[in-house]
Amino acid sequence: xxxxxxxxxxxxxxxxxxxxxxxxxxxxxxxxxxxxxxxxxxxxxxxxxxxxxxxxxxxxxxxxxxxxxxxxxxxxxxxxxxxxxxxxxxxxxxxxxxxxxxxxxxxxxxxxxxxxxxxxxxxxxxxxxxxxxxxxxxxxxxxxxxxxxxxxxxxxxxxxxxxxxxxxxxxxxxxxxxxxxxxxxxxxxxxxxxxxxxxxxxxxxxxxxxxxxxxxxxxxxxxxxxxxxxxxxxxxxxxxxxxxxxxxxxxxxxxxxxxxxxxxxxxxxxxxxxxxxxxxxxxxxxxxxxxxxxxxxxxxxxxxxxxxxxxxxxxxxxxx
Length: 320
Ligand code: CP
Ligand code: NVA
Hints:
The chain is α/β, with parallel strands linked by helices.
């Protein structure tokens, strides 16, 4: 049994549709306030965030640090060598020590079980900043970006088609989890010779019956009608020894202008969680082209994550 009584943020499938909607609306409000650059808007004043990362990061670190500090809070960031989670110190001990200093713990890990153990023993909310299993902060932020771009926040993704092209990794699992909570069309193209999407997440999305989910082995089979074409690296962090081998499986899978045109719509946008490897999963032309919204997408990490923190911390302090 888990001693923790805190509410954590580990996966999208534990959120209700109502909570997803509330987080989205809160993110819009926080973004508007942040853009005002008001020195008065400091909802996190007096709160401290502890961040433990066992993999590299630009966006996740920057968005939490800049966002939380801008809104009045303090942040400590631990690089992999500092804590050596589970090596120098047991995960459950790290959880209990950090809970004594911080109001929330943000953790990026290899094995998702480490996050679950942190959450189990932490007295404060634990937030998943990416594991090999999923990356919920990214996909929740992408929901903000897509609804902003298509001006459809009231309907969220209803009526939209998102097509993911590439490796069936942590990002796909989070997309499937979102598809199990709110309705939209999700197309996934992954090479047949690599791992299929996470079976449990796929079943969850299908049995929920809200979204149409199509899995194919070639991008051409799912791209038609896509509003969003989404890419990620072909080799995720922690899997670099497979890189050469993987390049073979992805021959011809680069999202270039010709591939993007397969959607048949000139309103399609290109998204990528970043970092991107130009010339591999996406061409430089598409990254830099008019359909790419990857940089507003990166910025929105901050606003959605502050909304998630607001939601988790509102009981800890009466947040304005
Ligand atoms: N997309 C994303 O999580 O980026 P980082 O790995 O740089 O944090
Ligand atoms: N799938 C990638 C996402 C990086 C943000 C990885 O896990 O490395």
